[in-house]
Design a protein that fits this description.
- The protein is α/β, with parallel strands linked by helices.
- The chain has one domain: 3-Layer(aba) Sandwich (Rossmann fold).
- It is 46% helix and 15% strand.
- The chain is built from 8 helices and 7 strands, in the order E-H-E-H-E-H-E-H-E-H-E-H-H-H-E.
- A 7-stranded parallel beta sheet has the order 3-2-1-4-5-6-7, sandwiched between helices.
- Strand 5, helix 5 and strand 6 form a beta-alpha-beta unit.
- Helix 4 runs parallel beside helix 5.
Length: 261
């Protein structure tokens, strides 16, 4: 079975970012109508224009995923436009600042947890009831290789991404019997502006050195492309993955398969 999304409606949070936009392109290519959600209105406008240039029906909605009112609003808007939500890429996230756990700023910790973990929870909280009423749907949450490994200096990010997998497995066990599937992708090192921001901090501004070093984390010995995450997310959101539920799929070039690096 191919990963067809023909006639389906999808919502993508973090749609102004590289992975969100790539996933939206993949979903649209598979036939879906797409709503992009992001806090960055300018980024959304640019991504919508790019999709429209390809003949894609794309809506946008500016929202802070850590605010329940904003989440309820983007869900309501999607229903008003599409009438249903068949696929939900619960993807918005931030990297935060780096620093040792014993010195980490409390406000920064709270900010990262609010977006990366509470934002995922709120997405599930407001989208799952829609899918349950419909009698079906699929969700993909965005974790990270940090969902299964430690990363020195990123206590809040690691904690949030570990939590995303817990939410995924819990929700999957709750709604699976009603025909709603919940899975997660765990991207590895992917070439995005978010990665570049982290690498500049980690490698004193030497972006090329950072990409070479981080690329060696994967057994494929390269950094991934956003579309490589988008393709897997689209598969998990499609009926082609109809027997996959509660899974956390590493899309990481083999990084989690070894401890050699």
């Amino acid at each position: 079975m191919s990963a067809s999304m023909q006639g389906k409606a999808a919502v993508v949070t973090g749609g102004g970012g590289a992975i969100g936009h790539a996933a939206a392109q993949c979903l649209a290519a598979a036939g879906a109508d797409v709503m992009l959600v992001d806090i960055d209105a300018a980024a959304l406008a640019g991504k919508r224009a790019a999709l429209a240039a390809r003949g894609v029906r794309a809506e946008t909605f500016v929202a802070d995923v850590s605010k329940a009112g904003d989440v309820a609003a983007y869900v309501a808007r999607a229903l008003a436009v599409f009438g249903r939500i068949d696929a939900f890429f619960n993807n918005a996230g931030i990297e935060g600042k780096l620093g040792p756990t014993y010195e980490y700023d409390e406000e920064e910790f709270d900010r990262i947890i609010a977006v990366n973990l509470k934002g995922v929870f709120l997405g599930l909280r407001h989208v799952l009831p829609v899918m349950l009423r419909q009698g079906g749907g699929a969700v993909v949450n965005t974790g990270s290789i940090a969902s299964e490994r430690g990363l020195a200096g990123a206590c809040a990010y690691n904690a949030s991404k570990h939590g995303v997998i817990g939410l995924t497995r819990t929700a999957a066990s709750e709604v699976g019997p009603q025909g709603v599937r919940v899975n997660a992708v765990m991207p590895g090192v992917v070439d995005t502006p978010l990665l570049e921001a982290m690498l500049r901090m980690m490698f004193n501004g030497d972006l090329d050195a950072g990409k070479r070093a981080l690329g060696r984390v994967a057994t494929l010995e390269r950094i991934g492309a956003p579309a490589e995450i988008g393709e897997v997310a689209t598969f998990l959101l499609s009926d082609a993955s109809s027997f996959v539920n509660g899974a956390a799929w590493a899309v990481d070039g083999g990084a989690l398969s070894t401890i050699r690096h």
